[in-house]
Amino acid sequence: MKHIPYQQHYNVVKKIFAACDVITSSVTHANRGAGAREADTGGASSTDIARLGRWANAHLYLSYIWNVPLEVLLTSFM
User: Which of 18, 30, 52, 66 has its CA 20 to 30 A from that of 59?
Assistant: First the structure.
């Protein structure tokens, strides 16, 4: 697999977002959150989402998955 330089990745994604009228401050990182939310909506467990994204569960909920019951959020900090 060939890797592309960060700046090239940034420029391509920024151009795509601009063409779709998407405004974000996290150009190259935006898809991580979208992927986590899509996996959550699709029924993936928070443990699997966190493992695949290499997040601690609490960080996953605070940064990427916003539709979380309060009880789940509180137990993530215990």
Answer: 18
Give the pLDDT confidence score for residue 65 in this predicted structure.
64
User: Which ranges of 1-78 would DSSP assign to H, the alpha helix?
Assistant: 6-19, 30-41, 46-53, 57-63, 70-76
Q: Are 42 and 57 in contact (CB under 8 A)?
A: no
Exposure string over 12-41, b if 16+ CB within 10 A, otherwise e: ebeeeeeeeeeeeeebeeeeebeebeebbe
Structure tokens at 43: 């029924």
Give the pTM.
0.54
Contact 49, 39 (CB under 8 A): yes
